[in-house]
């Protein structure tokens, strides 16, 4: 029995984009202000969960063919390899570095290795949260 | 640059994650996970030898100097435990190859074993009390998965207790950490030790230390072991062996670290309490070991007895007794893994779990049966096997210190261990065989080889105690003189 909730589905279509944008904003702001990979990841995950709630699992998986277990694994791999990279460069484990670049649209931008680490954290959080929600919902 | 000491943590994690992507290729997963553990073992041998020449090694993550950053510290004690844990895991993996079954292997069995080892190694190596909590959690989360993997009724029943008790104790751990941080304002273990020494260990800090004692006792199975026998006998053999060998040792390591490095000022309160708890653990563990007929229960209660024994070394607190405990921890990791593998294999071969229903295994499986005899002697502490050195040193230290009650309890418990295992030996290994030649299940080489490897381990650990003694006495020396550890962490040399 599925409830075809028109209001929820219509609102979701717009709100998901707001949540996704907000998640990315939180993720990027985390370098110097509150936010970061974990929080950004949680917000991003909530967008996916909302999608699953408003439409059914099958149709979301058709348009978003991701195995979230693999997303989580990839996130952990990304995060740990940035730490591991410092071993190859001969500096202490988990060392970070940053530099300023002049990018075409953004102008002078600070690029750091921490962002890659945080991206890994965000992916891991998204993967784990969605996997947990999906496995609970699959339970009959 | 000491980046090498992070490898025992990060290698298993990264390889474990890689194995998630290699889910369908079981053979590849087996090879990679075994190679990783052998690699970690080799790395820890290298670390151990470097500590002997260069002193305690430390690694400040990201270059943040202590006490501001987080760090890993490797002294002989932690390196010895990392080495033993990695070797035991590698051997248990060989056993898993031919016992665990494809269903488990497809459900990320190997990645979780590697995560478990990463948590265990991380707990041994961290120099920061909060990171100890984090590594505990890494280890526990992996163990929650491993204890429930397979989803059988008994497993689920026991794992609920296991998960609840561990979440509760983790919560206590966090509260204790908050109290300690509120009191001394740091989480770096060496720095805490320094500040506790400066401020004096007053009633408040002693109370906090008792909170830590409760937390680690729950994890180690010291007195508060009511959850242990059930949850260690429910999962598949190889997982039970890993749990029996590794998990309680992490709690014991944490007890040794906190009560030799940080809270060593009020031994009349804390160390006496540990002594009383260890004594009661020994008595109740002995009762359990002779009360049951289920071989897995007997093996689990043997874990409990060993926990009590090791902590007598800490309660007594002389350098000799600490040395004895370190020997005993190393010995026990190997011997307990072996005991659990043997007991699990007996159940597979006979199909029954009580020792009075088995008989005459020695006719069918002679080498296997003699291995059971080896582990019995080793756990009872009969020379020249590995349990002997540890028992003698703990006893010697306790007599030096005048703790005669603990000495008596320790040696009576050895006799009970011998009795409880000899009962299995006489009933199920000797006697008329009940398995006719045509019903005889062949004992797979993959099951026998790891048991024999562990048997060789316990024999050579006893015979080659001399080789080990320089490392162990260095480890005990560091534990006994906390200033060595503190200097190594807080001095600016790099």
From TrEMBL, chain A:
The chain crosses the membrane at residues 7-28, 34-53, 74-94, 114-136. One of its GO terms (cellular component) is plasma membrane. Keywords: Cell membrane, Membrane, Transmembrane, Transmembrane helix. It is found in: Cell membrane. InterPro entries: CPA3_antiporter_subunitB (IPR050622), MnhB (IPR007182). It is a multi-pass membrane protein. It comes from Psychrobacillus vulpis. Its main location: membrane. Pfam families: MnhB. This is Na(+)/H(+) antiporter subunit B. NCBIfam families: PRK12573.1 (NF009223).
UniProtKB/TrEMBL annotation, chain B:
Pfam families: Proton_antipo_M. GO terms for biological process: ATP synthesis coupled electron transport. The chain crosses the membrane at residues 6-26, 31-48, 68-95, 107-124, 130-150, 162-184, 204-228, 240-263, 269-292, 299-317, 337-355, 367-385, 405-426, 447-463. It is found in: Cell membrane; Membrane. Keywords: Antiport, Cell membrane, Membrane, Transmembrane, Transmembrane helix, Transport. One of its GO terms (cellular component) is plasma membrane. GO terms for molecular function: antiporter activity; NADH dehydrogenase (ubiquinone) activity. Residues 127-415 form the NADH:quinone oxidoreductase/Mrp antiporter transmembrane domain. Belongs to the CPA3 antiporters (TC 2.A.63) subunit D family. PANTHER family: NA(+)_H(+) ANTIPORTER SUBUNIT D1, NADH DEHYDROGENASE. This is Na+/H+ antiporter subunit D. It comes from Psychrobacillus vulpis.
């Amino acid at each position: 029995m599925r409830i075809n909730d028109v209001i929820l589905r219509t609102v979701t279509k717009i709100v998901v984009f707001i949540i996704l944008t907000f998640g990315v904003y939180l993720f990027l702001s985390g370098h110097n202000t509150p936010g970061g990979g974990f929080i950004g990841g949680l917000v991003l995950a909530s967008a996916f969960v909302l999608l699953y709630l408003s439409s059914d699992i099958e149709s979301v998986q058709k348009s978003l063919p991701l195995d979230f277990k693999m997303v989580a694994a990839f996130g952990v791999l990304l995060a740990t390899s940035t730490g591991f990279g410092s071993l190859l460069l001969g500096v202490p484990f988990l060392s970070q570095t940053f530099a300023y670049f002049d990018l075409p649209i953004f102008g002078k931008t600070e690029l750091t290795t921490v962002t890659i680490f945080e991206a890994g954290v965000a992916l891991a959080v998204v993967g784990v949260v969605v996997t947990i929600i999906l496995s609970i919902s699959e339970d009959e | 640059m000491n980046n090498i000491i992070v490898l025992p943590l990060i290698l298993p994690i990264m390889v474990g994650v890689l194995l998630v992507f290699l889910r369908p290729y079981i053979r590849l997963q087996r090879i990679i996970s075994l190679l990783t553990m052998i690699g970690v073992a080799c790395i820890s041998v290298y670390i151990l030898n470097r500590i002997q020449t260069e002193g305690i090694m430390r690694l400040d993550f990201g270059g943040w100097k202590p006490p501001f950053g987080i760090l890993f510290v490797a002294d002989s004690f932690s390196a010895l435990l990392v080495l033993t844990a990695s070797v035991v895991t590698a051997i248990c993996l060989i056993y898993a190859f031919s016992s665990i079954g494809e269903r488990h292997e497809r459900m990320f069995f190997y990645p979780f074993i590697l995560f478990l080892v990463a948590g265990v190694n991380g707990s041994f190596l961290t120099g920061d009390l909060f990171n100890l909590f984090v590594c505990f959690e890494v280890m526990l989360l992996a163990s929650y998965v491993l204890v429930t993997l397979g989803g059988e009724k008994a497993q689920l029943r026991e794992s609920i207790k296991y998960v609840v008790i561990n979440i509760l104790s983790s919560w206590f751990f966090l509260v204790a950490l908050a109290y300690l941080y509120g009191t001394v304002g740091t989480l770096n273990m060496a720095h805490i030790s320094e500040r506790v020494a400066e401020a004096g260990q007053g009633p408040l800090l002693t109370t906090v230390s008792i909170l830590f004692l409760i937390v680690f006792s729950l994890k180690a199975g010291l007195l508060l072991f009511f959850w242990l026998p059930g949850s260690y006998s429910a999962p598949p053999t190889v997982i039970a062996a890993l749990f029996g060998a590794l998990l309680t040792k992490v709690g014991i390591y944490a007890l040794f670290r906190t009560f030799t490095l940080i809270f060593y000022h009020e031994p009349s309160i804390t160390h006496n309490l540990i002594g009383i708890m260890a004594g009661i653990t020994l008595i109740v563990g002995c009762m359990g070991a002779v009360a049951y007929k289920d071989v897995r229960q007997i093996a689990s209660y043997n874990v409990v007895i060993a926990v009590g024994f090791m902590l007598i070394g800490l309660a007594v607190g002389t350098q000799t007794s600490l040395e004895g405990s370190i020997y005993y921890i190393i010995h026990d990791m190997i011997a307990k893994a072996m005991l659990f593998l043997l007991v699990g294999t007996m159940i597979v071969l006979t199909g029954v779990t009580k020792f009075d229903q088995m008989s005459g295994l020695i006719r069918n499986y002679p080498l296997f049966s003699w291995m059971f005899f080896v582990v019995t002697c080793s756990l009872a502490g009969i020379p020249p096997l590995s349990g002997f050195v540890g028992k003698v040193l703990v006893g010697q230290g306790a007599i030096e210190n005048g703790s005669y009650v603990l000495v008596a309890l320790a040696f009576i418990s050895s006799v009970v261990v011998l009795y409880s295992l000899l009962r299995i030996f006489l009933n199920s290994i000797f006697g008329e065989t009940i398995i006719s030649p045509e019903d005889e299940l062949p004992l797979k080489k993959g099951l026998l080889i790891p048991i024999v490897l562990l048997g060789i381990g316990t024999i050579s650990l006893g015979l080659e105690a001399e080789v080990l003694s320089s490392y162990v006495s260095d480890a005990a020396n560091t534990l006994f003189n906390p200033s060595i550890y503190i200097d190594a962490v807080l001095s600016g040399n790099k």
